[in-house]
Amino acid sequence: MPGAADPQNWKDQKLKWMDPEGQYLLQTTEAVGSGITVNPEAIPPASITSWRDLLKPEYKGKIAAFDPRLEGVGLATATYLYIKFGEDYVKQLYLDQAVLTGDERQLAEWVGRKVYPIGVSLVPRQTEVLSGLGLKFERVYPPDGPGHLVGGASLISMPKGRPHPNAGIVLANWLVSKDGQVAYTNAVKDVSRRTDVPVVAPAYLVPKPGLDYLDTYDTDFWLTVRVQTVELVRKALGT
Amino acid sequence: VAAPSSELPRARRSILGAPGFAAAAGRITWPGRNSWLGTLLLIVVGLAALVPVAFIVFGSFNVAPPGQPVRLGLEGWRQAFSSSQSLAAIGYSLLLSVRIPVALLVGLLLSWLIVRARIPGYPWIEFGLWAAFFLPSLPVTLGWILLLDPNYGLLNALVEQVPFLHARPFNIFSPAGIVWVHLTTANIPVMVILLSPALRQFDAALEEAATMCGASRVQAIRRVVVPLLGPALVTALLAGFIRSLEAFEVEQLLGTSVGVQVYSTRIYAYLRQQPTQFAPAMALGTSLLGILFVLVLSYQAYTTRHRHATLTGRGFSRRPLALGKLGYVVSGTCSAFIAVSVVLPAGMLVIGSFMRGFGFFDVPEPFTTAHWTSILRDPVFLRAVTTSLQLCFGVAVLSVVLFSLLAYVLARTQLWSRGLIAPLAWLPWALPGVLLGSALLWLLVSTPGVNVLYGTVGGLLVALLIKEMPLATQILRAGFTQISEELEQAAAVCGAGWLRTYRHIMLPLLAPVLMSVFLLAFVSSLRDISTTILVASASARPLSILMMEYSMGGNLAGATVVATIVTVGAILVALGARRLGLRSDSSVA
After folding, report:
1. DSSP readout, A88-154?
2. What is the ipTM for the molecules in this complex?
């Protein structure tokens, strides 16, 4: 489609590919993945100025986190924290300080209801629903760990031997066009890498210029650093 | 009181298997010992049971990452069994399975009160237990969380108001909470569903004879009812134990936050890792196959030694036992149990579907009909209704037809392959649904000819039929075992062929059991998530998968709307089937 793949319409004036060859896996969205979510009615967001604050004794029993031993947002955050602060930090946070759950809805509800007013790895699709009911959430990005970048489920690839190749091409073209990205980001509340698509996602998901984010959808990170770190995280947490 | 079949004269026991018998009747001939039917059944059951098993056993030794060429090794086994979490998960699985004997005892008592004592209001108590089984586990567990959460549970808040108590005694996030949810919404109801038909085929005269000889009521149950119901009880115990190892959603929701992992959640955790850890997941799956193999061999040995016919040709008594005023007390207790275990969570389910946020009573304008309006207008929902109806009726009808034939072969004939088919028919039960689903997905995608089923209702039908085969076959087999062979022999002597005998003698006597199998298959298909989740597609997506998708997407209220519709639909089918079943039941009486 006209303009669909024009780099001028995309962040940093380039299409972002996740594969080393730069032709198989196109990433169309980019958002900030990890952070601390607090219930501001119980914990003043300004009181947390560093990830290391979470290890303070007064926060023990007040933190809930998505279980990093399961694949997904919990493991991604733990991997990021391992790279930033090392094994001891990850062990203390997840094994000593936090209560773990594998259910993202439960995690959001715990923070929203102030059962555990500090949450790690909360996902917007749950917090936004509860925010609509009047529950309070505020995302905190401490300066010593502004977060990592994720592409969610926005990667587009064309399987070999697909049944309707031309239909696949039409769909892929539409998905990377402005209309396709508007439709996609409206549905999943993600941040498009296209610069001409209005942002409908919560503001805390939008990457801020000048901050040192870890790009977890970078080819080298995904294929080497991540694999090694995930292994170390799992070993540290005893999976 | 009733002679074990093994004590019957050999000629009398094997008469149905002898080709000469049917030939003498001059009608339809039931195949003899060496018939082609034995080979055909062995191939069909073998394919259904062994292909997924072979995939899983092989997968436990294939240590190559997904998509890479096969590399054999023991790394998966080492990884699975050197992990402290896996060992703890196996320990918790065994610990939590203690609920099964408890459920069996309570289920037997309830079945006896319903069928033999016919306590006041027994039809509604039985119906309440059926309804409990129909409630989808995910939203019901959420309902229990709302009631028994240690921090904001409604019942805890109520108890806290009681003077001098001021405590929150309940904690649903605990092993006890997991056992409670399973007992009330699955284990006890399913025991009643399994044992009631067996008790209905039980000649009350046997129990009456015991009491006339001076036995107390408890002694009569212990010395007469329990031994004669042995095959049905052992089937229920074994089935319950195996299914307890597969239980997933409740443990995932209630156990993870307190460090309680079980066998199935551990497998799920391996499958969710990236790259997917197939080998250790399959190794855990294979080890369950080993446990099952030992249990099935023990079961075979038991049923060979204990073949009691409780339904003979000598007349049949169904006189209810008089409990007097005690009956009202017992009925009240049972009704209270139903109210707590069914009405309370079902009520939460219905209320939840009308809430702006599931369980949030303290927000402005907490109730709305918006979820119902949007779901009922959603074309995806309407397609899912059609898919579910096709699937559930298909699985239920085919289960009754195919597995009653299989059970008859196992219980009655002397076919050469019988001894091989019996353990094979149990095998799919050893596979957690998600592993069975992944094996079938692989089969559907990669097998020429079979791959036309991928993404269709047909593919889901095959998956669920394989899943239902063990329970349906064993329930029906226990039912056939309870019916004395002399009834068929009498029909044959009167000149009836096999088909006529089956239609006019066996089918009416077996109607309650067939109805149970129909309903179990129907409801299991309606509720199933773990087996179908990998095989379902956008063009063949049943209601249960749609419910899960809503739930995963944060639309819990939408999920409860679908869950309510699923529950109401299942109860309506149960009411209809129950009416038919009771009619058949009374016609036999």
Report:
1. HHHHIIIIIIEEEES-HHHHHHHHHTTSS-EEES--HHHHHHHHTTT---EEE--TT---EEE-TT-
2. 0.74
Q: Tell me: the pLDDT tens digits for A177-227?
A: 999 999 999 988 899 999 999 999 999 999 999 899 999 999 888 888 888
> Tens of pLDDT along A115-147?
999 999 999 888 988 998 899 999 999 999 999
Q: Give the pair of three-digit tokens for residue B278.
A: 């197939």
Substitution target in B250, B265, B360, B371 with the highest count of A β-carbons within 10 Å is B360
Burial degree of A162 (CB within 10 A; 0-12, 13-18, 19+): exposed
Q: Which of A67, A99, A106 best tests the B interface by mutation, with the highest count of B CBs <10 A?
A: A106
| pLDDT value, residue B3 | 39
The DSSP code for A192 is B
Q: Looking at beta carbons, which residues of chain A come within 8 Å of B84? A: 238
* B273 contacts in chain A (CB < 8 Å): 70-71
Indicate yes or no: CB of A133 within 8 angstroms of CB of B85: no
* Cis before B275? omega within 30: yes
How far apart, in whole angstroms, are the C-alpha atoms of residue B77 and residue B82? Answer: 8
Looking at the partner chain, which of A71, A132, A135 has a beta carbon nearest the beta carbon of B273? Answer: A71
Q: How far apart are CA B190 and CA B196, in angstroms?
A: 10
Whole-angstrom distance, CA of residue B28 vs CA of residue B16: 12
Nearest-angstrom CA–CA distance, B249 and A15: 41
Residue B95 to residue B178: CA distance in whole angstroms: 11
With beta carbons under 8 A apart, name residues in chain B contacting A133. 356-357, 360, 363
A57 vs A93, A161, B187, B306, CA distance in Å? 11, 57, 43, 63
**Chain centroid offset of residue B310 CA:** 24
Helix, coil or strand: residue B205: helix
Q: Say yes or no: B587 contacts chain A, CB-CB below 8 A.
A: no
Q: Which residues 6+ apart lie within 8 Å of B282 measured at CB?
A: B56, B57, B58, B59, B60, B62, B76, B435
Asked if B51 and B428 count as a contact pair (C-beta separation under 8 A), the reply is no
Pairing status of strand A98-101 against strand A155-156:
unpaired
Closest residue, chain A, to B276 (C-alpha): A71
Q: Which residues pair with A192 in a beta bridge?
A: A29
What are B523's two structure tokens? 């409801």
B302 at A interface, C-beta within 8 A: no
Q: How far apart are CA B468 and CA B227, in angstroms?
A: 27
Cβ-Cβ pairs closer than 8 A, A with B, add up to: 60
**Is residue A191 within 8 Å of A27, Cβ to Cβ?**
no
- Write down the pTM of the prediction: 0.75
Rounded Cα–Cα distance for residues B349 and B361 (Å): 14
Q: Does residue A69 belong to the interface with chain B, where contact is any CB pair within 8 Å?
A: yes
Interatomic CA distance for residues A220 and A19, integer angstroms: 9
